[in-house]
Each structure stands twice: as C-alpha cells, then as structure tokens.
Amino acid sequence: MSRSDSRPWRVSWQGLFAALMFFYMYLPIAVLAVYSVNESAYSAGWTGFSWRWYRKLFQDGRIVRALENSLMVAIASVAIAAIFGTLMALGLAKYRFWGKSLYRGVAYLPLIVPDIAIAVSTLIFLAVLGIQLSLWTIVAAHVVFCLSYVAIVVSSRLTTLDPHLEEAALDLGATPLEAFFKVLLPELAPAILAGCLLSFILSMDDFLIASFTAGTGATTLPMEIFSRIRTGVKPDINALSVLLILASGAVACGAEYLRFKGNQRHNS
Predict the structure, then answer these.
(1) Whole-number pLDDT of residue 171
(2) Contact at 8 Å (CB) between 184 and 87?
(3) Listed residue (64, 63, 69) closest to 213, CA to CA
(4) CA-to-CA distance for 157 and 43, rounded, in angstroms?
(5) Average pLDDT of 162-190?
(6) Do the Cβ atoms of 41 and 223 come closer than 8 Å?
C-alpha cells in the first residue's frame, strides 16, 4: 500500500484554506437565505418557517415596476453592446491601422475606470448636450461598460480561432458576408453569448451609474432596494436578494457552459 493510500483522511492545508475561504464568502448568503423564510418581520430571531415574504414580494407593484425597468435597460444595452462590441473585437483582431494600440487601451478603459467616474462624466456629457434624463439615458450609460465586456470576451475567442477559416470560405466561392455569417459568426456565437450574459448581470446589478443618469420615474431594481434598506433590511428584501443570487448564478453557469462548449467544439 502506498503512503498516500494509508492515510486517506489526511487534509492538505491548501484544501483547508480553500474550504475556509468558501465558508467565509458564502456564509452571509446562507444567513440571508435562512432569514428570507423567517416568519418574523424582524431579523432579530427565528420564529418559524414561512414563504410569506416571497408571496408579498411578487405582490409589490413598486418592485415589479423596478424589475421591469432593470430588465428593459439590461436587454437594450446588451443588444447594442453585442453588435458594436463584436464589430470592435473583429476590427482590432483583423485590421492594422494607426493608433491601434491606443484605441485598444481606450476601448477597454471602462473595465478599470471607477463607476463613479463613468457616472459623473456621463451626467456632465448629457447635461452639455441638453438631453433630458430618462430610462434611455441609463441605457446609453450602460452601453459604455457592456461594450467593453463583450469586446474582450469575443477578442479572447478570436485568438483561438484559425485565421484562415474565412479565407478558405472565400476561396470556395462564398462572399465576404456569407463567410462572416456562415463561418465566423457561428464560431464566435458562444463567446458573444457569454459576453452578453456577463454584461446583462452587470447591468442588472448597477446602482451607481443608474442613479446618476436616471430620470423621474426611471427607477431600477438596485435603486429601489437601496431606497428601502435605509430604514433597515426587511424580510422581503432578503427574499428578493436570494432570487437575484439564484438568477445571477444560473446566468453565470450558462455563460460558463457556453464558453466550455465553444472551446470543446473548437478543439474537436
């Protein structure tokens, strides 16, 4: 019997450290989930199991309207970013032009610029142009960072593709548009979808930029949650947070699955 088989119960310090980190990260979420089904209206103690806060949540008109606004902003900004982000990634990967390195750095700058800087600069820009704040100004602001996330995910996919795929399609008689839509776009589809899902979650989660660029009545879900927790966290907000965590986890798993299937298809 080998030395490793003689003591199968032995735990390495790396595994112990990883377990402690996961415990530290997910313990607050577990506590949140427990108190979301607490019958009491206060989080001071456990009084019994109940789904009442989830039922109350879906009957709350303000929450529903805020959720609809957030979904509309996220879908619109991601749709715009998917088109222009993909084109930007293709342009940076396939063409050479003066100032390309500078343009690449500027294009990815929203990934590292603090949200407060983007929010203030967007607000000043809209004020200079005289544009009235509304739900669509939030969309315009969200496109800025969604564009960068889509572009960087698609760019990473382009680096693993055979650069001669389009040339082969053109040699076989395809037009440039046919080569793009029938050859290149299917290969990029998993990366585009992954970038869109990531951008969708970030747009749904954004509070700072939305609060600076929102007009009257254009309240998103994070803004509605923030306005309610000023007087304390209520159980219905706990329930809403649990649902958002589950939805975010499902979207993240979907994005990872699409990325894995895309890489698997490419390697095969």
Answers:
(1) 75
(2) no
(3) 69
(4) 46
(5) 79
(6) no
Residues 6+ apart with CB under 8 A from 218: 69, 133, 134, 135, 137, 138
Residue 191: name the closest of 96, 256, 103 by CA. Answer: 256
User: Where does the pLDDT of residue 188 fall: very low under 50, low under 70, confident under 90, or very high at 90 and above?
Assistant: confident
Q: How far apart are CA 76 and CA 30, in angstroms?
A: 33
The whole-angstrom separation of Cα 97 and Cα 109 is 19
C-alpha distances out from residue 265 to 157, 176, 193, 195, 261, Å: 12, 23, 15, 18, 6
Cα separation, 122 vs 138, whole angstroms: 10
Q: Determine the distance from the C-alpha atom of residue 106 to the mean position of all C-alpha atoms in its chain, rounded to a whole number.
A: 21
pTM: predicted TM-score of the whole model, two decimal places: 0.77
Q: How far is CA 4 from CA 11, 12, 16, 41, 108, in A?
A: 11, 12, 18, 52, 47
Which pLDDT tens digit goes with each residue over 143-160? 988 998 898 888 888 887
Instruction: Please work out, in degrees rounded to the nearest 5, the angle formed at the alpha carbon of residue 46 by the alpha carbons of 43 and 49.
Output: 110
Give the residue from 135, 95, 152 showing the smallest Cα distance to 220. Answer: 135
Instruction: Give the residue with greater pLDDT, 8 vs 86.
Output: 86
Determine phi and psi for 38, rounding to 5 degrees: -85, 130
- How confident is the model at residue 235, as a pLDDT? 78
Helix/strand number for the chain, H first, E second: 13, 0
Tokens linked to 119: 């929010």
User: What's the confidence (pLDDT) of residue 1?
Assistant: 46
Cα angle value 127/196/246 (rounded, 5°): 105
Is residue 210 within 8 A of residue 133, CB to CB? The reply is: no
- Rounded CA-CA distance 161/23 in Å is 39
